[in-house]
Amino acid sequence: MPTSEIRFTVANSVGDRAATWKCWSPPAKNDVYLACRELRGTLKTSLHESGRWHVAYSAKFFDENVPVEHRYDDGRFVEKWARPAVMAPGVTLAYRIVTSGMSCTTKETLPKSVHVVPAPIAAGRAVEFDIILVDHPTVDADGWPGKNQGTRLVGSYGLGDGASVFVVCWEIAMPTLPSVRGSPKFYQGKGAADLERANLRALAFGEEPDGSRVIYDCAITYTPSGPG
């Protein structure tokens, strides 16, 4: 059996895109995984059927690139949490990805397998992707979670136990993120010079009040601190 997967991104009117994402489940498994293509498998979100969810580095990347002094108490695990409460009977909003229209900075022709969502035209707007798990076939063939609230279907697939995975999207106001100050930590072989380039982007991780997690795909400007 082939792996079930959904690939998606946001692109503007001139074809520049933001980060590209893959949501997938291996054959005969009810676990769901999420990864950013640009990170090349170094970091992955795992939504296990057991309800034990986490974000973690791959073992190889962690061992070879994360200095010992920068490692977490849980080893290669960035974060662990329990599956959040359902938002409706049998329906769990598992993860959010929020992409600012300003994050479309990469010029690349994408394969047709990638679902491309148009970037917002107005300033201060963003596209929110929601990864939603449905435990039983409560959604009819022409529907999807949130359809009546104006969401758009990006893709879906079934799991072996009759459950389903949906990725939907809708346009929102880009939240104001807190300022980040301090000295950056670098992987092995990387340094401040790697931040001094055009079209720099960052992924910021957060937690929503309903217990779901969120990743913000943001365009950033790096300003080196002065002497002292």
SSE run: EEEEEEHEEEEEEEEE
Q: Termini separation (Å)?
A: 59 Å
Q: Given the C-alpha coordinates, what overall shape results?
A: globular
Helical stretch tally: 1
Read across the widest sheet, the strand sequence of neighbours is 7-6-5-4-3-1-10
Query: Any low-confidence stretches, pLDDT <50, length ≥5?
Result: none
The total strand number stands at 15
Q: What is the helix content?
A: under 10%
Count of discrete structural domains: 1
Could you walk me through the main structural features you see in this protein, from its secondary elements to its overall organization?
The protein is mainly beta and 228 residues long. It has one domain. It has one helix and 15 strands; from the N terminus they run ββββββαβββββββββ. The chain has one helix at 59-65; strands spanning 4-11, 16-17, 21-25, 32-36, 43-47, 52-57, 77-82, 91-100, 106-107, 114-118, 125-134, 152-158, 164-173, 201-207, 213-219. A seven-stranded mixed sheet has the order 7-6-5-4-3-1-10. Strand 14 (201-207) and strand 15 (213-219) form a beta hairpin. The model has no long low-confidence stretch (mean pLDDT 87).
Could you name the key traits of this structure?
globular, mainly beta, seven-stranded mixed sheet, 228 residues, six-stranded mixed sheet
